Amino acid sequence: MLSRQYLREHPEEVRASLEQRGYDVDLDRVLDLDEEWRALKSRGDDLRHERNEVSGEIGRLKADGKEAEAQEAIERSQELKAELAEVEARADELEAELDAALLELPNVPHESVPVGDDERDNVEVRRVGFDALRELPEEVVPHYELGEELDIIDEARAAKTTGSGFYFLKGEGAMLEHALIQFMLDVHREQGYVDLFPPIPVKTTSMVGTGQLPKFAEDAYRIGGSETEAYDEDDLWLCPTAEVPVTNMYAEEILLREDLPLKHQAYTPNFRREAGEHGTETRGIVRVHQFNKVELVNFVEPDDSYDRLEALVGEAEEVLKRLGLPYRILNLCTGDLTFSSAKTYDIEVWAPGTPADDGPERGGRWLEVSSASNFEDFQARRAGLRYRPERHESAEYLHTLNASGTAIGRVMVALLEYYQNDDGTVTVPEALRPYMNGAEVIEGHEPVGESAVGAGKRD
RNA sequence: GCCGGGAUGGCUGAGUGGUAAAGCGCACGCCUGGAAAGCGUGUUCCCUCUGGGAUCCUGGGUUCAAAUCCCAGUCCCGGCGCCA
Description:
RNA-binding
């Protein structure tokens, strides 16, 4: 959230930011609320000051045994009490309104973020791994067909147990998931990350802390109630990204300067409702309601956060480098930035098997596997994440950043398509083999059940 | 789930209706040849900032006045019960 002071002093910058992001917010109303609140607050402070003085006087008069004068003062105090209650009730009302409005204002983009409307205006920063591509089959089979063929991804049966947008991984597919997790965690441990295994349900305050709420309730799964109900009871949501539990782990705390930079990684499942996305991406595991990833979360001193963002992208892309997967990096434009972010780099891996309008020249598509963002103090202010620069100084908000250490399901998609062989098997990249019991190739499984006989895949 | 104990400033910790002791840490100042000790000041948030207001886990209530009394809740500790 933006600080009230910043809003007061830089209203035009906030207005420009809203415009560039494509937000339609009545900023003047927010500014008016603030001004009116301050006037009432001041009036209330004066009244309270007077009451405190009268109150102290009562104590002294009573001690001196001057009952009549004390009684007079008590009556004066009662008058003040009534007036104060009125002023403060109105001030509280305004402040609540102001806070609610502030929670819905997005972060202000950094000056290095390109101005633009949507993903078409994102700026490609670099492309990696396209110089020495491996030889691909004439026709690369999309992962959803290949996954079915090898019987390592089963979407149909997951629809039966859970619904559309979920999938089973089986045999070598499930092994590949475990292998990718362990491989990624190892890479990031080398980079100085400390592992966390967080609780998967999170409270509303946590969702507000990182910015998923109050504005984006329709994206998340609520446990034990409708996402539109009041949050008094059964206040739990399914983790939409490990960013939420991990960032909020230190909410309302003051860290020491020596604690920074704080680097945590966490593997978790992530749940997204993907409301309004029905009809697109219905095949495959690119857009699903549950996906798993290793998330990287950084807490740093404010002066370091932009250097750290560059380094963080490097740490995330290391996974793709070691797997030998070609990818590109984008600097997201203002219109494509998420709510809490001041600047975001996307890492998109090349999935050569799936056709797309906006894919690379060689065909296939770009798949977003990581978003590395600097939130500056936006989340820190919402969640109460502070640090003490020097022991004797007052605490300041720290800066938070995070990046997926790449989404596991989508990396798997890229692997199945990019490492595909002519005979329909998939080569396991060398870096991953130690995590796959040494397996060099994924050969698949015999399908199970009568339906396979009907389809001519079993005798 | 039940019974009992608890939550106070950066940390420890007193305070049972009259406006938050004390100690520790840290910083600065005084003192000193220098240091230690000692002394002083500071070390939460908000505001229209020579000043004022709020803050003793949270939210209600009683009262002229609440850290203190009452109600509800959260979390922590101990014991009992249940449980993969």
